Each structure stands twice: as C-alpha cells, then as structure tokens.
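User: I'm putting together notes for a lab meeting next week and I want to include a structural view of one of the chains we've been expressing. I don't have a solved structure, so I'd like a prediction I can at least talk through. The sequence is below, exactly as it appears in our construct file.
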Amino acid sequence: MTALPPPQLSLSADEARRIALRAQGFIGTPDRRGGARGVLRALGAVQLDTISVLARSHELIPYARLGAIGRKAVERAYWSDGHAFEYWSHAACILPIEEWPHFAFRRRARRARGHRWHVLQDAERSIAAVLDRLRADGPLTSTQLGGAKNGGPWWDWSETKIAVEWLLDTGEVVCTRRSGWKRIYDLSERAVPADLLHDDLDDTACMRRLVAQAGTAMGVATRADLADYHRLKGEDVASVIADTGLVPVEVEGWGKPAWADPAALATEPRGRHRTTLLSPFDSLIWDRPRTERIFGFTHRLEAYTPKPKRVHGYFAMPVLAGGRLVGRVDPAREGRTLVARQVSLNGPKAVQPTADAIVEAAGWVGCTDARVERVLPESLREPLADAVKRSHDRR
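Assistant: Thanks for the context. Below is the predicted structure for the 395-residue chain, given as structure tokens.
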C-alpha cells in the first residue's frame, strides 16, 4: 500500500466546516448573475428525486443558495440550450454538459456489464427500434416512443423503456431536458456538442477529474467523502488523488486523512451566512456520515419509513442558520398556506432563524401564509408561531 503524504496543514473543526460551507455556496455574496447554471457548475452535480413537497429537490438546490430565484428560471437554466445532461453521478443527477467526457468510465462499465437490472427480451430489435424512431422523429419521451410500462407496478417497464434507458446508460442516447418530469430522450450525436462527444479519456483520467471536482465542490474532504460525491470506488480515488492537485491536510476531530482544495485554503471564508431550509438531497448534506462529522447533526430521510415510526416527518428539511444545522421542518402545502407539520428545534436560539426560513420558503412557492403545527420541544411551539407571524408581517 502506498504511504500517504504527511498533511501540509492542520485545520480546526470550525475552519473545516466554514470551508465546506463556502465551497457549497452558503457563505458570502451569492453569484446571482450566474444563477442556477452557476450553482450547477460550482457543485458539479445536482441530484434529482421524484418527491415534491415545497418543490422538487433540484429546484430547492439553487433556492437554498440564491434565495427566491424564479422557479421557471431554474427549469430554463437546467433544461434549455444544451447546458446540462442527466446521468448517474451521486444518484440520478443533472450535470454540466462539459462533464460528459468524464463519465466515459461509467458508460464503458455499463456496456461491459451487458444489461441493467432489467433485461431486454430482444435487445437487437428493441434498441434498433428506439434509435430509428429518434433519428426519424427527433427527441421523444418514453411514452411517445411506445410506452414506459407494461401495466403492472412502477418497475414493470416496457421493452421500449428498458431499451431507451440502456441506451442512456451506455451513451448512445442522452437526456438534456425534461418536460412535466418526463425525460426527453435524444441521440447523443445530435444533442452533445461535437467536441465533447467522445469516450477518449481512459478511466484514470476520468477519475482524476471527478475526484478533483468533488474536492473543489466540498472544499475539504476525506477519501470516503470524495468517493461518495460521484459514487466512485475508494480504491479508485486513492489511485489518483496524488495527481488531482488537492492538498493533504488534517482536521481536528475527523480521525482520518483529508484533502483540501488549495483555492479554498488561500483565503479565509468570510461573508453572510445563508439561513434556509435544505433539501435532504442537497450536496451539503447528502452524505450522512460527513454531515454528522462536520455539523454534529444526524439526519435521515423518513419518506419511506412507516408513518408511526417517523421521528421528524415525511420530508424533514434541515434548517441551516449561522453556518450550523439548528433544526428540522417537515413542510406541506394547504392551498396557499405553508404548513410546518412538525418542527424539531435544537434550542431557543433556533426559533427566529427557523421562522425566517419558513416564511421565506412560503413566499418562494407562492404561499401567502404560514402555519406551525407540532413543535419539539413543545415549549417552543408558541415562541415559534409568534416568530413566524413577526417574520411574515415584516415581509
């Protein structure tokens, strides 16, 4: 095993936390001119998910950093002019189109496997039929191609859906936009810019770029953090990390070697902290062990937990304030009222920032009122309800 280089710098836990927050866009003046596209480029990946409570997760990501950016502007930023594509990164993610060549390693691996979890009954015929339709008729949804399902459960895909997703996995087809949450598939040769449409980079070059990008997006990270960002193998990260430009550091309390983006070390993080509700799929917190290590905050998505066993609610959104995670809000909408069905607070100091976050989110999604229901601890329910009213009146 190759010996790890000695750390070049020691960081306190607080310094590491602030570096991570700035790298993710939560400290300092937001780049409003760059908008949602700027957020996407900085993060390198924005996770998609089917759950929509206040809004879908990919809309919540730029909102959390930029404030009340128009939701239609967010969709245009992602799904127009060929600026982005959808592929497998941390999960199903929106990625900057410039990253297409760097996922060649994953496309090769999918091709080598020969199938996804669904297996085609007549691969040659089904794949040819999809490609012929796209060539003849242009970009299409799976429904337009012939239907996504066989009529059974959601995973009971049609032969056409299996074929087009296989082509997406292996790179012959790409999704550069969605409509009504449906993927619109197109031929990669038509949708990906010619200078990017290649799988010329070997696996090592791909890994080197993605590890470096993850390091920049996180500011400071362990090997496991770097691997999780784009779901790489730990040994692959270890094999390229010395050539990424990331600097070996040690962080107080982490107990593991870490690496930092040299640009993140060059200046001290300064500026205003965002106060906001975070999607559980936000890249600041999507890695649960990292979230616990940096913020001392244990968070789990409970959407798929039976209701009687939920602790914090169906879609509990962590509250970020002053660079700390200070509570959780499980929101819902009733007409034009945002309802905080359950709020969990870390103490009285979390009351006002949580109220501000609730009211700002309400305005962003077009609600004219906000209401608080259950609060833990119960002693903070009335103070929070009063704070929400004050915050709403100020607006």
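A couple of points you could mention at the meeting. The first strand starts at residue 9 and ends at 11. The chain has a mean pLDDT of 93.

User: Perfect, that's what I needed.
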